Fold Metallo-beta-lactamase domain-containing protein.
Amino acid sequence: MDLLTVISPVFGARTSVLVADDGACVVVDAGALVADAVVGLVQERGLRPAAVLLTHGHADHTWGAGELAERLRVPVHVHARDAYRLADPFGTLGPLGGAAHDPSGPLAQSLVGVGADPASYVAPADVRRFGTSGSDEGAAERDEDVPLELGGIRVVARHAPGHTEGSTLYLVGDVVLTGDVLFAGTIGRTDLPGGDSQVMARTLREVVARLDPSTQVVPGHGPTSVVRHELTTNPFLVGLSGADR
């Protein structure tokens, strides 16, 4: 499995392209202004895209998903509890988003700063939801793993709420794509709408700490890492190794 990376100029969000030996590929996350680069990689290498997967519904990871999915002619997959965010990328990002026509909002400022129009967002047309939608009372409950067979690539979607209700880890072989749940040396924030520090703590204990220590960590921002290294150095994970195993 080959791993290609495109970094969005908006909040430095990572788009990953996982490529199988036979040329099948899946795209994980699609930030602003990444579509041209991803399509270029697909065409240059003669790849066969099967899907766009979203680790969660925040706009810095989803802004280009509609355009990219349309150009690649593939569906977008997202956890059911974050699907609502695709219709309102500004409002559901809380203080980082603001109103679409409010130029003072951080998201709008970042978009304008790289030459993108804050009003140009296109929601994905073909959205495949997995997991349960939950409710206000049960939204913190974690779903079971969902296996996804995408163009011959087997991906395991593992619900990991806390950063958002529908945050998801994607496991492919010895790689885990963690979105904004886990970064090298730290974790995602929990103070935005849908975030919950207690739910995140449980996710770290029951999901992240149980990952195979040799698994490569590919986060939504910043450098990659290895689970073993995070379990021994990340202050949010130290002491959780083997917890509840």
